[in-house]
Amino acid sequence: MPGVLGIEWRRSAGVLLAFRWLMAALASLPLLLLVGDVVSGAVGPDPGQTITEALGIAAFQLLLATLAMTPLRRWTGWGGWLRVRRMLGLFAFFYAVLHVLAFLQFILGWSDLWATFTKRPYIIAGAVAFLCLVPLAATSPVSAMRRLGSYWKPLHKLIYLAVVVAWVHFLWQARSDLGEMVIYGLLLAILLGVRGYWSGWSSLVPLKKG
After folding, report:
1. What are phi and psi of 139, to 5 degrees?
2. What is the pTM of this model?
3. I need a labelling partner for 61 at 20 to 30 A (CA). Which of 3, 12, 81, 171 fits?
């Protein structure tokens, strides 16, 4: 009986709703903290760089969190993790959009974009990662899932390419301070490795069925 009650408690609508609100609050926290730093003037001598980096790292962290939901579901046996996976992915895209806008506004500038774009390889990597996220966000509604049918899952494997290229994007900019990116890289390798071990390595190939 205690085990049954425990399962029912975890499946209750109230618990799932509270969990969704909690995860939404946690996903919003980087932006709220950044706004607080901007208001208080605690963004350092180069505010544009600080804002841009913070938004980009938040997007990357949320991509990792999105990938972690399936392993957590399997390890804990609780389906609540999968209930927030799409929401976290959309938060990741939201931060990525803000990151791109901040980069254009504070660092790259809006004039002569192509010339500057082609001279900085890390920008190309970031652009590829962002472009991979666009169709994922556009097809995240349930209605889009139904329209795409069996093509939806292969399309959404683009997240694996997006997160890897995003990691390369940040690694390219890390210069001598590689510690944080090495840790992120190890975590990413674990998440992708677990996925490949469970579902086969071909399951990591974008646009490939199966």
Report:
1. -105, 20
2. 0.91
3. 12
- Other C-beta atoms closer than 10 Å to the C-beta of 113 total 12
Average pLDDT along the chain, 210 residues, taken 10 residues at a time: 50 88 98 95 89 96 97 93 96 97 81 65 90 96 91 94 95 80 95 93 84
- For 154, counting Cβ atoms within 10 Å of its Cβ (0-12 exposed, 13-18 middle, 19+ buried), the class is middle
Rounded Cα gap, residues 163 and 65, in angstroms = 11
**CA distance readout (Å), 171 to 17, 112, 180:** 37, 25, 9
- Please indicate, yes or no, if residue 83 is contained in any of the structural domains: yes
Residues 6+ apart with CB under 8 A from 132: 158, 159, 161, 162, 165, 206
* Number of separate domains in the chain: 1
CB 6 within 8 A of CB 70: no
Asked whether residue 128 is assigned to any structural domain, the reply reads yes
How far, in Å, CA of 65 to CA of 22, rounded?
14
Judge whether 168 lies within some domain. Answer: yes
Q: How far apart (Å, rounded) are the C-alpha atoms in residues 192 and 190?
A: 6
Q: What does pLDDT average to over the chain?
A: 89
Rounded Cα–Cα distance for residues 11 and 77 (Å): 11
Helices (H) and strands (E) in the chain, counts: 11, 0
Q: Which domain holds residue 35?
A: 2-204
